[in-house]
Design brief:
With 213 residues, this protein is mainly alpha-helical. It contains 9 helices and 2 strands, in the order H-H-H-E-E-H-H-H-H-H-H. The chain has a two-stranded antiparallel sheet. Strand 1 (60-62) and strand 2 form a beta hairpin.
Length: 213
């Protein structure tokens, strides 16, 4: 029975994280235990456990009103988070370029294919999910789970804010095509090239995100 509860809590936690990272749950959104339990077909106990885990990660915060909410940040706080994330993403690209395996290449290419398919179909929600998987594949390619966890945490917490920059299908296509150059830089297996590629990619991304917020 305990294993079922833990499994349900983890499933709800991961689903909510994915929705937050993809911008489907916006900053300030209230986490209603009843509706979440109904949505995922579980009792309120694993939902409460999942929400407490997300609160411990800083993804959710207590609000003035009762309950937990998707974290909101000031422009200054958001800028500071983007600055830290910028450096971590660059480090991930640099290390990934030096440790590429056949599996890592395959995962990155598969994630990019999903990005292109979603962009070409104009499916914003699907693109945001695919885009997250694209960057997560790069983190995993470092072979360093600690670095991947840190990078993933920033990506989860900034997801709703980065999502706002995608207004139409053209934005999706532009973003997906920008991945092609980044992939070439990482696959070059040259750390300097990969560093420059990710620096340019994330600088543009963060400037657009700050503008949208």
């Amino acid at each position: 029975m305990l294993d079922v509860k833990i499994s349900a809590a983890r499933r709800v936690e991961e689903a909510l994280l994915e929705s937050i990272a993809a911008g489907e749950l916006e900053p300030g959104a209230h986490m209603d235990e009843v509706s979440i339990a109904e949505r995922y077909g579980v009792s309120r106990t694993p939902v409460r456990e999942a929400l407490n885990r997300l609160a411990a990660q800083g993804v959710l915060v207590s609000g003035k009103k009762r309950g937990l909410f998707v974290a909101e940040y000031s422009r200054e706080e958001l800028g500071q988070m983007f600055e830290a994330m910028h450096e971590i993403e660059i480090a991930c690209a640099r290390i990934a370029s030096q440790r590429l395996t056949f599996l890592a290449r395959t995962e990155i290419e598969a994630a990019q294919s999903a990005c292109m398919n979603a962009a070409e179909s104009g499916d914003r929600s699907e693109y945001l999910r695919a885009n997250e998987q694209f960057h997560l594949a790069i983190y995993r390619a470092t072979g360093n789970p600690y670095m991947a966890d840190i990078a993933s945490e920033f990506r989860r917490r900034t997801g709703p804010f980065r999502a706002k920059k995608f207004l139409d299908a053209d934005d999706l296509i532009k973003s997906a095509k920008n991945h092609e150059g980044l992939i070439a830089d990482i696959f070059s297996e040259d750390s300097a090239t990969a560093t420059d590629g990710m620096r340019n990619h994330m600088t543009l991304s963060f400037l657009e995100a700050l503008k949208a917020n």
